[in-house]
Write a structure and sequence with these properties.
- There is one protein chain.
- This protein is of the alpha/beta class.
- The chain has a single domain, classed as NAD(P)-binding Rossmann-like Domain (Rossmann fold), CATH 3.40.50.720.
- It is about 45% helix and about 15% strand.
């Protein structure tokens, strides 16, 4: 079981102030990693939870909707300087905008793609240069059920999450021989801020639950094990994979 430990590792998690990102960051710390939190909001609660584990925590503020590639590269450099290295990157940050495709605005399209796809590539590129040079590392992208399906009234989100899986596989092919694995976790329908609108709609809530064999919405805790596994040496021969954590949604 020692292969699941992350002692001595440094992780960078985006969108870590709440939800899946907070769950991932805390789980990595519990497994032994020091964790940097990259978020545009207040990640103080996540930092407090990590500090309780005895691990080091660093907060780096960036707005992924507007940050330039240079600013994201600088964020990676700050993590390496302050925490002494980098071993794990979790591209978790994501946003969603709902509207009929015919009325979907350019601003919404651009922001969703910037956060969900562009920032993931630029952070992976910056982190990848370091991970490849040291001969080891883990990059984990957060995909979605809409990496497999089209969804309803979320064209930019669906497009970004399909593209993120393609990016995961492309980087996995290029970097595997350097000891760097690139995988994705595809959470199912999770009780987080992004799904508040769906859960508040009684009809949509019932229809979604009716398709989930587990019979409930997922929680950040349900995904923590997948993050730790893919960040650890236990997954050393897992590369380019997309791991659904969905209560059985895809097999229904």
């Amino acid at each position: 079981m020692d292969r699941f430990r992350l002692d001595g590792k440094v992780a960078l998690v985006t969108g870590a102030s709440r939800g899946l990102g907070q769950g991932a960051a805390v789980a990595l710390a519990q497994a032994g990693a020091d964790v940097a939190l990259l978020d545009r909001g207040d990640a103080s609660e996540t930092a407090r939870l990590i500090a309780k584990t005895g691990r080091r925590v660093l907060r780096v503020q960036r707005d992924l909707a507007t940050a330039t590639p240079g600013q994201l590269s600088e964020a990676v450099d700050i993590v390496r300087e302050e925490l002494g290295g980098l071993d794990i990157l979790i591209n978790n940050a994501g946003t969603i905008r709902r509207a009929d495709a015919l009325q979907y605005g350019q601003t919404d399209w651009d922001e969703v793609l910037a956060v969900n796809l562009d920032s993931a590539f630029h952070l992976a590129q910056s982190a990848g240069r370091h991970l490849i040079s040291q001969g080891s590392g883990r990059i984990i992208n957060v995909a979605s059920m809409l990496s497999f399906q089209g969804g309803i009234r979320v064209p930019a989100y669906a497009a970004s999450k399909h593209a993120l899986v393609g990016l995961t596989r492309a980087l996995a092919n290029e970097w595997a021989t350097s000891g760097v694995t690139v995988n994705a976790v595809a959470p199912g329908y999770m009780a987080t801020d992004n799904t508040a609108e769906l859960r508040a709609d009684a009809e949509r809530d019932r229809s979604i639950l009716a398709r989930i064999p587990a019979g409930r919405w997922g929680t950040p805790a349900d995904v923590q094990g997948a993050f730790v596994f893919l960040a650890s040496d236990a997954s050393a021969y897992v590369n380019g994979a997309v791991l659904p954590v969905d209560g059985g949604w895809l097999v229904r």
